[in-house]
């Protein structure tokens, strides 16, 4: 997705605030419902200059632009709520540096690294209803079956690093070194909420060609993603829309810092009779930097597991 996708007609000398919101919503749709905060800020800057107070915004700080974006999203969500949709801001588990590396430098403005994405989601109360708005009953059964295997795969701890060159592994190690002030050995274990395409092709009610086509559809809709190892996992859209169901059905736990679900970052195995905890990379960094190096009697520096 290029930052120059947003097309503002030259015939519109001055934009109303509602037109501005419509352009931002259009931009999010062009990004297939998931847009990195910095990418959306760049789009806002292009259209804000066409508004009544456009000249004033030329000297705004990043914080002012972020506040303006949040204000516009909140206003537009009032209208979207009538259709059972909303735009929410979520943190990606891979952390701000890895997330920011997903997009290239934008214009000439210096944006800080950010792990935040704006996601257009269905706000219907029932997960069945959320799925039914875009998938057939047959496709929904495959999605449910796939989610079970993806979660089951993520709960298995692997000895060694599944991908030794993974950017998230490097980022977690950098965080640990920066906090301790010394070199730290890599953790011994890792896990990944992903499964191979071959495993998903074993779904009996569909043939291999149908499964391959549906996986590509789910990737296009930002429900699934495929990593560089060719494995399939849940993208942000699926995690956000199905969060409550995933937690209830699979006994997953929310991040101890921000109280939302993440399937990337750091896993800390609890002591006896304590569940494992899963942390966003940035939440993990915040905690060991500002709170402490232990959590419920377990060292966060030495006893972690990479969730990649």
TrEMBL record:
The signal peptide annotation in the UniProt record is none
Q: Is Plastid included in the keywords of this UniProt record?
A: no
EC number in record: 2.3.2.27
In the UniProt record, does the keyword Iron occur? no
Name the reaction it catalyses.
Answer: S-ubiquitinyl-[E2 ubiquitin-conjugating enzyme]-L-cysteine + [acceptor protein]-L-lysine = [E2 ubiquitin-conjugating enzyme]-L-cysteine + N(6)-ubiquitinyl-[acceptor protein]-L-lysine
One Pfam match, by short name? Answer: SMC_Nse1
Q: Name one GO cellular component term.
A: Smc5-Smc6 complex
Which InterPro entries does the protein's record reference? Nse1, WH-like_DNA-bd_sf
Protein task: Acts in a DNA repair pathway for removal of UV-induced DNA damage that is distinct from classical nucleotide excision repair and in repair of ionizing radiation damage. Functions in homologous recombination repair of DNA double strand breaks and in recovery of stalled replication forks.
Name a GO molecular-function annotation. ubiquitin protein ligase activity
Provide the GO biological process annotations.
double-strand break repair via homologous recombination
User: Which UniProt keywords are present, listed alphabetically?
Assistant: DNA damage, DNA recombination, DNA repair, Metal-binding, Nucleus, Transferase, Ubl conjugation pathway, Zinc, Zinc-finger
Oligomeric form and interacting partners: Component of the Smc5-Smc6 complex.
Q: Where in the cell is it found?
A: Nucleus
Name this polypeptide is given = Non-structural maintenance of chromosomes element 1 homolog
């Amino acid at each position: 997705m290029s930052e120059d996708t947003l097309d503002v007609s030259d015939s519109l000398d001055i934009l109303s605030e509602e037109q501005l919101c419509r352009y931002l919503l259009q931009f999010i749709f062009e990004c297939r419902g998931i847009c990195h905060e910095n990418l959306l800020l760049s789009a806002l800057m292009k259209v804000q200059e066409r508004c009544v107070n456009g000249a004033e915004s030329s000297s705004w700080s990043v914080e002012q632009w972020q506040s303006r974006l949040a204000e516009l999203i909140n206003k537009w969500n009032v209208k979207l709520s009538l259709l059972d949709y909303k735009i929410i801001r979520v943190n990606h588990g891979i952390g701000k540096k890895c997330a920011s590396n997903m997009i290239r430098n934008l214009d000439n403005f210096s944006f800080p690294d950010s792990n935040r994405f704006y996601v257009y989601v269905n706000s219907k109360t029932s997960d069945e209803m959320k799925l039914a708005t875009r998938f057939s009953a047959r496709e929904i059964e495959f999605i449910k079956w796939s989610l079970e295997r993806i979660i089951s795969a993520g709960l298995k701890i692997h000895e060694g690093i599944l991908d030794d060159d993974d950017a998230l592994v490097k980022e977690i190690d950098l965080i640990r070194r920066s906090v301790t002030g010394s070199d730290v050995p890599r953790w011994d274990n890792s896990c990944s909420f992903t499964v191979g395409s071959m495993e998903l092709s074993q779904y009996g009610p569909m043939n291999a060609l149908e499964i391959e086509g549906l996986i590509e559809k789910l990737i296009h809709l930002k429900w699934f993603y495929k990593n560089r190892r060719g494995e399939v996992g849940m993208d942000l859209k699926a995690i956000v829309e199905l969060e409550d169901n995933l937690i209830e059905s699979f006994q997953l736990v929310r991040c101890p810092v921000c109280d939302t679900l993440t399937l990337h970052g750091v896993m800390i195995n609890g002591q006896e009779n304590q569940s494992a905890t899963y942390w966003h990379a940035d939440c993990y960094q915040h905690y060991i930097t500002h709170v402490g190096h232990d959590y419920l009697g377990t060292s966060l520096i030495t006893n972690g597991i990479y969730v990649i």
